[in-house]
Amino acid sequence: MMVKNLLCILFSLSVLHAIAQEEIMHNRTTFFIRSFLEPTDPSQKPMVEGQQLFSSVVVHRFYSERQFESAWIQDDTVLRELAYEMRYEIKQAKFDGLQPDDYHLLAIDGLFSKYEMARSSGLALPAIELAALDLLLSDAFVMLASHLYHGKVEPEQLRTVWNIQRSNPDLKIDQRLYFAIDNGSIRRALQELYPTFTIYRPMREGLRRLYDHLDRFQTEKMTTWKELKTPKSIKLGDSHSIIPEVIQRLSFWGYLQEDFEDSGKEYTAAIEEAIKKLQVKFGMDPDGIIGQGTLYALNQDPGSLIRKASVNLERLRWLPDSLKEGELIVVNTANFQLDFIQKKDTILSSRVIVGRSFHSTPQFSAMMSYLVFSPTWTVPPSILRQEVIPGMRKDPQYMANKRMRLLTFSGEEVPVNSVDWSKISAAGFPYMVRQDPGDHNSLGLVKFMFPNKHHVYIHDTPARSLFAREDRALSYGCIRIQKPFELAKLLLQNNPRWTDEQIRSAMRQSREQVVNLDRKIPVVILYLTYWTNPNDQMVYRNDIYKRDEEIYLALIQKR
Fold first, then answer.
1. Quick one: angle between helices 127-150 and 302-318, nearest 10?
2. Contact yes or no for 236/205 (Cβ under 8 A)
3. What pTM was computed for the model?
4. Are residues 206 and 186 in the same domain?
5. Could you give the number of structural domains in the chain?
6. Is the pLDDT score of 497 beyond 60?
7. Can you tell me the distance from the alpha carbon of 161 to that of 141, in angstroms, rounded to the nearest whole number?
8. How many other CB atoms sit within 10 Å of the CB of residue 540?
9. Catalytic residue flag (residue 459)
10. What is the 3-state secondary structure (H, E, C) of 72-134?
11. Same domain membership, residue 91 and residue 65
C-alpha cells in the first residue's frame, strides 16, 4: 500500500513538473518576469542584469495586472517597435537636462545588441534576457515619466531654500504605461508629462541646439577655450591681445558674418556689433564695451551653457501647474525683473533690485493681499548694527537728516540726544528706530505685501538711479520696483475709486494707509538663469547667487 501511494505521489510530481515545463515553454518571458519581480529576499529590490529596479512597486503592479505578460515583446521572441521607441526616448532625455544612464541605457543597449546579433544569426535571444529587457524598459519608462513631471532632484534637500509648493497628484504611471503601449505611442505619453509652461519645449529645443554646438566644438578643436581676462575694459579702436580669441568665439556662435575680415588685435566696429548681440543675449546693456560682464559671456563654452540649460529645465519641473492660470506676479531675481501676468499675457514688466549675494532674495511663493501707501519703515536689527548706530556715533544729526525717530517698544518717542550712542550696541538695543513716510523713506512711497516667513516684500525706493545698473543685486533681500505706481494701478484696477490722481495722492501722505486688495494674487519669486524669449531665442543670465552648481551636481549624480 505504501509503495502504491509513493508511486502515486511520484507520478503526480512528474505530471506537475511536466505541466510547469510546458507552461515555461509556452510563456517563457512571463515565467522569468515573475521570477525577477519575486526575489527570494523580500527586503531587497529586484535586480535585473545587475540593475536595480528603482520603481519596483509600480512595475510589479503593472505586470501583475497583466498576468506578468511581456509589454515590449511580441510572440515571446520579437521586440516590438515600441521597444525601439522607448530606447530612443531614453537617449533623448539628455535634451530635458536628464541623464540617459539613469534609465538603464547601458544594460538596455547591451541587450539590444545581443538581440540583434541573435536575429542576424537566425536565433532567438534567451527568454530570461528578453524578460530582463522587458522589465528594464518598463522601469525606465516609469522613472523617466516621474522625472519629467516632478523633476529628478528634490529641491527640499538642497542648501538653497525652495518654498514653492509643487504639484503632487497621483500620476498612476503604471496606467500611463499601459495606455502608452496599448495606443502605440511612447513619445506622446512622455511629452504629456512635460511642464505645461509654454517656454519648456522651446527651452528643450534650445538645449538640443547646444548639444549640436558641443559636437561642433569638439570636432573643430576648440577645446582650448581658456578663460579670458583683462583688468581694463576694451573699447572701440583699442588693441588687445585677447581680440583674436574674442573673434574666434564670436565666429563660433555665429555673431560674426562668414565674410568677416580679420583685424588682428584691433577692436573694430564689426566686432563691436557682434559683441552687442552677445550682450543682449546675456541681459547686458549693449554698449559694445568688453568689461567683466562681457568677458563672463565670452567665457561660456557649449558645455557650461548645457549645464545652465539643464538646471533651469529642472527648475521648471518643480513649479506647480496652477501658476499658469489667472493673475500672477513673477519676479526672476537672476533677471532683476518683475512681470505682472494676466491670462498668460504680460501686462507689466519692471526692473527690480534684489538682495545682495550675502542677503540673497529667497525662492518662494505667497499671496499678495494688500498694499501700504506712504509707509513708515521700522529699521531691522542688521541695518541698526551696520548703519544707524555707526551713523549716530559719527554724526548726531544722522537720524534727523533721514527723518528717523527713536521709539520704545510701546510706541513712545525717545529724544535721540538722551542716548549715549558711544555705549550703545545692536545686541540688546532697547529701542525701535522708525522712519517717517516721504520721499526720503527707504521703502519709497508704497509697499506691496504678500505675507511670508521670509519677511520679504516689494517696495518703492528713493534710490532711483540704481535701476540703471546692470547688476542690481543691491538690497537686503526685499525687492525694490522701478514702476511702483503702475503696479499699484493694476492691483486696484477693479475699484473705480482708485483713480490715477487718488493713487498719486495716497503715495504722498504724512501717514500710512493700508489698502486691502479685492482678490489675492499669487506672487512667485524664482531664479532662472536660462530661458527662451518669445522669438524662441536662447537667453542667459549670470548665476548671481551661485545656485546652479548644486542643482547640476544633483542632476548628474548616479541613481
1. 80
2. no
3. 0.89
4. no
5. 3
6. yes
7. 30
8. 21
9. yes
10. CEECCCEECHHHHHHHHHHHHHHHHCCCHHHHCHHHHHHHHHHHHHHHHCCCCCCHHHHHHHH
11. yes
For residue 220, pLDDT beyond 80: no
Q: Which residue among 138, 172, 191 closes a domain?
A: 191
Which residue in 60, 104, 147, 478 is the catalytic one? Answer: 478
The CATH number of whichever domain residue 334 belongs to comes to 2.40.440.10
Checking if the pLDDT of 1 tops 90, the result is: no
**All cell numbers assigned to 333:** 531675481
Please tell me whether residues 71 and 209 are part of one structural domain: no
Give me the domain span that covers residue 282: 202-304+548-556
Same domain, 299 and 342: no
With respect to residue 269, please indicate whether it lies within any of the assigned structural domains.
yes
Q: Which residues pair with 266 in a beta bridge?
A: 239
Clarify whether residues 370 and 430 are in a common domain. Answer: yes
Strand pairing class (473-475; 345-355): parallel
Residues 229 and 253 in one domain: yes
**How many residues does this entry show for the chain?**
559
Selecting among 60, 104, 147, 459, the annotated active-site residue is 459
Is 8 a residue of the active site?
no
- Provide the β-strand partners of residue 477: none
* Count of other CB atoms within 10 angstroms of residue 481: 25
Is residue 293 domain-shared with residue 335, that is, in the same domain?
no
Residue 306: how many other CB atoms lie within 10 Å = 20
In a domain, 316, yes or no: no
The verdict on residue 313 lying in a domain is no
Whether residues 211 and 184 fall in one domain: no
Pair 311, 552: CB distance under 8 Å? yes
Q: What are phi and psi for residue 534, nearest 5 degrees?
A: -60, -20
Task: State how beta strands 73-74 and 51-52 pair.
Answer: unpaired
H helix intervals, 319-387: 381-383
Measured between alpha carbons, how far is 382 from 386 in angstroms, rounded to an integer?
6
Report d(CA 442, CA 423) in Å as an integer: 26
With respect to residue 60, please indicate whether it lies within any of the assigned structural domains.
yes
Q: How far is 469 from 466, CA to CA, in rounded Å?
A: 6
Per-residue pLDDT of 336-380, as tens digits, reads 999 999 988 899 999 999 999 989 999 999 999 999 999 999 998
